[in-house]
Amino acid sequence: MAYEATGKLHEKFDTQQVSEKFSKREFVIEVVDGQYPEHIKFQLVQDKTSLVDAYKVGDEVRVQFNLRGRGFNKNGQMLYFTNLEAWRIEAAAGGGQAAPAARKDAQPQRPAPIASDDDNDLPF
């Protein structure tokens, strides 16, 4: 499942080498939603841990992420946890596509004429 969130980069953490084959890095963005800001923590894994290096705290960023959930049995009790696994980070202001520029030689478009009552086939 892919999702997107936009907010201000609030904090970046160091990369953690969890095991010989697995590394992760976490970061937090501040999202203003209503009256109070929300601080959302994301996780970058493996070769994606350097994605947040290009940004500094305070930058407005757009994060694309997957929602991940796992369960495990610990001492006979099932425990569950959820991660927001980021896979793309980009500047929020420049991330979208710009509208195409208008050509100087283009003719203005005229609206289609509105049909009069005499021109339509409606029964009323």
Automatic annotation (TrEMBL):
Pfam families to which the protein is assigned, alphabetical: DUF3127
Protein name: DUF3127 domain-containing protein
InterPro entries: DUF3127 (IPR021474), NA-bd_OB-fold (IPR012340)
Organism the protein comes from: Hymenobacter jeollabukensis
Region feature (Disordered): 97-124
